[in-house]
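Example for tutorial group B:
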């Protein structure tokens, strides 16, 4: 039985999931400016609900941004702390890719562009295509003015808080947020394929940090 903890707090939503074998325990709630106070409590509550303890975890998965500086830093730090203390490995995934996975599941669309908020005149873009339960993604870190809606084929749909900067976008998918439950599914696949990293390799992506984005790619 594989037990994985997944944490995603790059937005105002606090999203945590625990997979205990085939059972899944979820918490997903809008908690603006409360992540620091609530996240560890949420994790402990889910562990109690699942009947697991920290030393029964096999891996920790975490959404590494871009997004809220405080939320991304907090979730990465907690994931590292748990992994180091339990001598287990980790799984990471861009929060924009998680956003695309959620949009794919909610709206059954196959080609998605996720756009971050603007910071220092730049935006992050992740283009994802879903085919037969497989996902292929490519990422870009570009100046806002370099984004051109008409450069994308008509079959692409758009998600993310950054979409509000571009009123010309028509294929917009509303009210979509990255979720730990989807991270948990990816984490289980990577665990089974031995695609794990060491805790010290967790690399947060901050909205003003081009270097970490380049390293991730």
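The residue assignment follows.
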């Amino acid at each position: 039985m594989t037990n994985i903890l997944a944490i995603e707090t790059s937005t105002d939503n606090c999203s945590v999931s625990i997979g205990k074998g085939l059972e899944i325990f979820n918490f997903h709630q809008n908690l603006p400016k409360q992540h620091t106070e609530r996240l560890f409590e949420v994790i402990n509550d889910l562990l109690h609900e699942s009947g697991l303890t920290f030393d029964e975890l096999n891996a920790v998965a975490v959404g590494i941004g871009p997004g809220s500086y405080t939320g991304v830093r907090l979730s990465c730090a907690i994931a590292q702390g748990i992994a180091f203390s339990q001598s287990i490995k980790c799984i990471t995934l861009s929060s924009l890719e998680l956003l695309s996975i959620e949009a794919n599941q909610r709206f059954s669309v196959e080609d998605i562009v996720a756009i971050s908020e603007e910071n220092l005149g730049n935006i992050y873009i992740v283009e994802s295509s879903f085919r037969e339960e497989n996902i292929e993604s490519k990422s870009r870190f570009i100046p806002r003015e370099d984004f051109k809606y008409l450069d994308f084929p008509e079959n692409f749909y758009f998600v993310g808080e950054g979409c509000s900067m571009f009123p010309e976008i028509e294929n917009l998918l509303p009210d979509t947020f990255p979720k730990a439950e989807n991270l948990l599914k990816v984490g289980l696949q990577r665990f089974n394929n031995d695609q794990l990293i060491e805790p010290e390799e967790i690399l947060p992506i901050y909205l003003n940090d081009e270097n970490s984005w380049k390293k991730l790619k």
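The longest strand covers residues 122-131. Compare this with the pattern of hydrophobic and polar residues in the output above.
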